[in-house]
């Protein structure tokens, strides 16, 4: 879906939501097998200055069967319109709702974007808690420097990429491609990718805290999950 001219006239900096920039990549939605929404969870002008996003964007779109599009956090005026008008958060390129994608990847630059992630999932009508998402929902991934300590966001993210995302991204996509071809359950995918170095799947670990809330220990609960993420 596209934002109507009436909506764009009612928000500040409407160019944040129009897309169509030079060198943006628009693929045929119906002819690609894997759809990925890439997000730096902040305003368009902040997210587009992040160098990781265009690297991952180009890397994913270099795969013939992969479509990668961008999505950013809307400003409060657009958020209000989306909620009152019942508009789910769409991607920038094709305007498909985020809930129609296979994967949503968040690049976390710092901790203050954590709440933006939750707000964007809510705007997209995707359950915020990972435990409440099922096989019909996108796989939610997070990486970047803000994910080096993943535990504060562990309840909301299906899997974390710890370290440089471009080093494991295509291996992750290969696993997703095989899993989608098999038509297996989401839990099978999470177990499969947990064996990839640098991938942390919170649902496959037991985390314990001290009485004062400080971290105490973490241990894998599945054979595929490594005791050490590196």
Unreliable sequence segments: none
What is the CATH class name?
A: Alpha Beta
Query: What's the SSE pattern?
Result: HEHHEHEHEEHHEEE
How far apart the termini lie comes to: 40 Å
Q: Judging from the principal axes of the Cα atoms, what is the shape?
A: globular
Largest sheet: 6 strands, mixed
InterPro entries: Radical_SAM_N2
Organism: marine sediment metagenome
Domain Radical SAM: 54-202
Protein name: Radical SAM domain-containing protein
Brief description of this entry?
The protein is α/β, with parallel strands linked by helices and 230 residues long. It is 28% helix and 17% strand. The radius of gyration is 18 Å and the shape is globular.
Describe the fold and architecture.
With 230 residues, the protein is an alpha/beta fold. It has a single domain, classed as Cobalamin-binding domain (Rossmann fold). Helix content is 28%, strand content 17%. The chain has a six-stranded mixed beta sheet. Helix 3 runs parallel beside helix 6 (165-182) and helix 6 (165-182) packs antiparallel against helix 7 (186-193). The longest helix is centred in the C-terminal third of the chain and has 18 residues, at 165-182. The protein is globular, with a radius of gyration of 18 Å.
């Amino acid at each position: 879906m596209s934002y109507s001219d009436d909506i764009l006239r009612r928000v500040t900096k409407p160019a944040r939501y129009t897309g169509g920039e030079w060198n943006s990549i628009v693929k045929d939605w119906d002819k690609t097998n894997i759809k990925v929404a890439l997000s730096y969870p902040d305003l368009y002008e902040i997210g587009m200055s992040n160098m990781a996003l265009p690297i991952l964007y180009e890397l994913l779109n270099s795969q013939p069967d992969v479509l990668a599009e961008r999505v950013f956090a809307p400003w409060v005026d657009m958020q209000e319109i989306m909620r009152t008008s019942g508009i789910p958060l769409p991607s920038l390129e094709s305007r498909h709702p985020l809930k129609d994608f296979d994967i949503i990847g968040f690049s976390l630059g710092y901790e203050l974007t954590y709440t933006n992630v939750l707000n964007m999932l809510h705007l997209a009508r995707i359950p915020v808690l990972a435990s409440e998402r099922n096989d019909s929902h996108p796989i939610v991934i997070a990486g970047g420097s803000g994910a080096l300590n993943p535990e504060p966001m562990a309840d909301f993210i299906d899997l974390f990429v710890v370290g440089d995302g471009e080093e494991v991204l295509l291996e992750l996509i290969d696993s997703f491609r095989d899993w989608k071809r098999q038509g297996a359950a989401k839990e099978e995918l999470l177990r499969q990718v947990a064996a990839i170095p640098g991938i942390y799947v919170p649902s496959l670990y037991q985390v314990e805290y001290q009485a004062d809330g400080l971290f105490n220990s973490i241990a894998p609960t599945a054979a595929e999950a490594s005791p050490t993420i590196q």
